[in-house]
Amino acid sequence: DYFNTDYNENCWYNPDVFSTPENISHNHGFEFQTHFVMTDDGYFLTIFRVQDKFSSFKKQPILLHHGIISSAVGFMTSGDRSLAFYLARNGYDMWLANHRGNTYSLGHSHLKTSDPKYWNFSFHEIGLYDLPATMEYITKKTGNFRKIIYVGHSMGCTVCFIYTSLKKDHAEKYLKGFIALSPATAMKYFRSDFRPLLPILNKLIEDVMVTLSYHPARTSLKCIAHFLQLMMVGKFQHYDYGWKENLNKYNSVVPPEYPLSDITIPVHMFYGLNDNLVSYQDVLWVFNELTTPEKSIDVVPKNRKIKFNHVNFLLSKHIEFYLYKPLMKIIKALEIRNTSK
């Protein structure tokens, strides 16, 4: 009887474990669709659509974007408390992104994953190519009648800051607003005991990637290197190719910083006090750099005796009360914004 859930309270069974995204959605009573998007530089992206069975598709579309070495499934792994399911249950048309190179988006028009050229991208290219293609596709599929609300976590915020700062006209056309959960940008104040080891880690990055390659979702070496660069220099800047190549690409020996002051859409940020990767100081720095008329910064949860870490934005026993409640207030406010352009 040890392995029988009827007789042993320590024995459990979760049908979502090792299941497919489609089956996970069905397990919790939601409709699931798989869509495919091609970027201008040839990458094939897989995006998921999750809808409540009893809800109309004529609802506000929301795009969720995951962090590094993660995937869209990260928004579906907390059962009924999962962000994708919570918002779908509240009537929203949920779209879940998978950036280039992760488990679900490995296709390319002419490059194989065994070709090093395939992996020659960082989060810069994800923001520059993946996001615009995804926004355009979703808007086309939803009938061109609604702008999108974007919700990102960690690197899912990084890529949106790049997109909204470098392609602000495109962002104004397709986005109602951007909600950033634990946004990774300059990372100047990230709290970690291994900061002195960063120069060494940067040299050992190829060995580190062997370990990372066994994670369920993939990413590129260049993404990791770019984040290490931001941690070392404490600036939110383009990829550093070395002074010679920087001169060719940027007409400067140092990489330019992303122009956060050019962002014009509403930006609302949430941070946790126990987040060792994205500190309050870094989020406050972003807030002060932004000049958009509508912006906010808020700690989660409000009860400062309880402190969210980086993962709690996806996995937390009381996430509905601590995060989803203030999140829904912002979503509802953005939802009623005038969509005409």
Keywords for this entry:
341 residues, alpha/beta, Rossmann fold, 9-stranded mixed sheet, 9 strands, globular
Number of helices: 11
Structural class: alpha/beta
Q: What coarse outline follows from CA principal-axis ratios? A: globular
Largest sheet: 9 strands, mixed
Gyration radius (Cα, Å) is 20 Å
Corresponding CATH superfamily of the domain at 21-115 and 122-185 and 261-335: Alpha/Beta hydrolase fold, catalytic domain
The CATH topology of the domain at 21-115 and 122-185 and 261-335 is given as Rossmann fold
CATH C-level name of the domain at 21-115 and 122-185 and 261-335:
Alpha Beta
Tell me the strand percentage band. 15-25%
Mean pLDDT: 88
Order of helices and strands: HEEEHEEHEHHEHHHHEHEH
